[in-house]
Design brief:
By secondary structure, this protein is an alpha+beta fold. Helices cover 15% and strands 30% of the residues. Strands 3-2-5-4 form a 4-stranded mixed beta sheet, with no helix packed on it. A 4-stranded mixed beta sheet has the order 7-6-9-8, with no helix packed on it. Strands 1-10 form a two-stranded antiparallel sheet. The longest helix has 20 residues, at 2-21. The two termini are 17 Å apart.
Length: 210
C-alpha cells in the first residue's frame, strides 16, 4: 500500500511539472529522480592531451608534432647530427637553458633544436642520407653526414590511422635499419607504416534505477 501511495504521489508531482513548466523541466526532473542517464554516453577525453612540437632548427627538417597525455614528461629525441654543425641541445620558448625532459607538460609546447656551425668540409668528406617519410604530404629530407660516421633516427609525425614501424633501407627487409651503422656511401631510409584499426569509443553503462 505504501509503495502504491508513493507511486501516485510521484506521478502527481510529474503531472504538475508538465502543466506548470513544460517538457524541458519534466525531462530534467525525470532524469534526476530516475537517474536516467544515457546508457551509451561517450567519454570525452579531448582535454587530457597536449601537443608537443619538435622544431629541429635545421632548414631541411619539418616540425614534428606529437600528442601526449597531459601532465606527463616527453621523451628526449635522439640527438641529431649534421656535418659542419654541432648540436647544442633542445630549448623551449626562447629559454636560455636547455629543456628539462623530466618536466611534466600541461600545455602545448614547441621545443627547438639549437646548432652551432663548427667547420666546413669538402663534398668528398661527406655522404648524403635521405629520409623518405613515405607520406604523401611530407617531403623527403636529405642531410650531409661525414663518411665513417653514423646518422641519427629522426622523429616521425603522428599519423592518423597508422602505426610507425621503423626506418628501412629496403622495405622488403624484415629488420629495420640499425642506426649504430657507420656509413661509407649515400643512403636512403624509408619509413614503414602499418594501418591500424580505430578503437571503439569508450562508453559507460548506467543502469536505470527508481
Amino acid at each position: 500500500m505504501k509503495k502504491s501511495f508513493k507511486t501516485i504521489f510521484l506521478l502527481l508531482i510529474i503531472g504538475f511539472l508538465l502543466v506548470g513548466t513544460g517538457c524541458e523541466a519534466l525531462d530534467e526532473f525525470s532524469n534526476k529522480v530516475f537517474n536516467n542517464e544515457s546508457k551509451d554516453e561517450v567519454i570525452d577525453e579531448s582535454n587530457e592531451f597536449v601537443t608537443v612540437t619538435f622544431d629541429y632548427g635545421y632548414s631541411s627538417f619539418s616540425k614534428v608534432s606529437l600528442e601526449i597525455k597531459k601532465d606527463q614528461p616527453i621523451f628526449e629525441p635522439v640527438e641529431p647530427s649534421v656535418s659542419g654543425y654541432t648540436f647544442k641541445g633542445w630549448y623551449s620558448n626562447g629559454n636560455d637553458s636547455p629543456f628539462d625532459f623530466q618536466t611534466k607538460i600541461n600545455e602545448d609546447i614547441i621545443i627547438t633544436g639549437v646548432w652551432e656551425e663548427t667547420e666546413t668540409s669538402s663534398i668528398e668528406d661527406t655522404i648524403t642520407v635521405t629520409y623518405d617519410y613515405n607520406v604523401p604530404e611530407i617531403d623527403s629530407v636529405s642531410i650531409q653526414v661525414f663518411k665513417g660516421e653514423k646518422t641519427f633516427e629522426p622523429l616521425v609525425q603522428t599519423r592518423e590511422s597508422y602505426i610507425f614501424k621503423g626506418w628501412y633501407s629496403n622495405l622488403s627487409e624484415t629488420e629495420s635499419f640499425d642506426f649504430s651503422t657507420t656509413l661509407e656511401q649515400d643512403l636512403i631510409l624509408t619509413a614503414r607504416w602499418e594501418e591500424s584499426i580505430p578503437a571503439e569509443p569508450e562508453t559507460k553503462d548506467v543502469t536505470d534505477t527508481l
